[in-house]
Design brief:
The chain is α+β, with helices and mostly antiparallel strands. The protein is built from 6 helices and 9 strands; from the N terminus they run E-E-H-E-H-H-E-H-E-H-E-E-E-E-H.
Length: 168
């Protein structure tokens, strides 16, 4: 499992972009992690699935509400990762009103989740292999803090916990 001090794996996530600009075309665009994280401080959080109850009611809204506080704490970007496709993440972004606050990144084939060792096997529940719920603060591509939830929990990966770590 990835740990504090480790670099993010060289995975590529996908991001659905609705407005063309900054070299991004409309539709899914690749986000190569080493390049995307270089020289930045990023608040990353991952969820088991888009549109799921805890993720939609608590996890994403907390980061959207605290986006300005994260910026004030020196965080350049907030990323939400989920093992879903880019189209689902784009629809969820619209639903959660994340534009300009949280980048919704798709780990469609769970490559990032597998590379970090932060997978959650939900095959018996019809959901397949997913990402565990966690948050991490990443500086220049390296993990500075890591908060991994226990099974079925939402206690340490919330926006308030990661914000306090970013402010420390």
């Amino acid at each position: 499992m990835i740990k504090v001090g480790d670099a993010l794996p060289a995975a590529t996530l996908m991001e659905y972009v609705e407005v063309e600009g900054n070299g991004c075309s409309i539709g899914p665009n690749p986000v190569k992690l080493p390049e995307a994280a270089a020289g930045k401080t990023i608040a990353v959080f991952a969820v088991p699935g888009a549109f799921t109850p805890t993720c939609s009611a608590k996890h994403v809204p907390g980061f959207v509400e605290q986006a300005d506080a994260f910026k004030a704490a020196g965080v350049d970007e907030i990323w939400c990762l989920s093992v879903n496709d880019a189209f689902v993440m784009g629809a969820w972004a619209r639903d959660q009103k994340t534009e300009g606050k949280v980048r919704m990144l798709a780990d469609g084939d769970a490559a990032f989740a597998k590379a970090t060792g932060l997978t959650l096997d939900l095959n018996g529940k019809g959901l397949g292999l997913r990402s565990n719920r966690y948050s991490m603060l990443v500086k220049d591509g390296k993990v500075v803090t890591l908060n991994v939830e226990g099974p079925g929990k939402f206690e340490v990966s919330d926006a308030a916990t990661l914000l306090a770590q970013a402010q420390a």
